[in-house]
Amino acid sequence: MWPCSTGALARLGLARANALEARTDPGVAADAARTRALIAYREFFELWKDADPDIPILKQARVESATLQRSTADSKESETLKRSLSCKLWSC
Known about the structure:
elongated; about 0% strand
């Protein structure tokens, strides 16, 4: 990773692009995009770890990352519930 402000902002752009893909693509493609987005957000936060926490773009990135992490947890719970219901219906 390039330790400059434009490199960090490029990581944020990648995270946002992958997050958008995760919201619009179905199934496995969405899961892969969500994972790439979370990695890019983590890299962005690592590059900006010493930044002023009140910088608006940093605050917004934290909100976006948290939202994406919640949606990841929600989709995993939803998938587990679907499997459980499927097994009950088909006597797995």
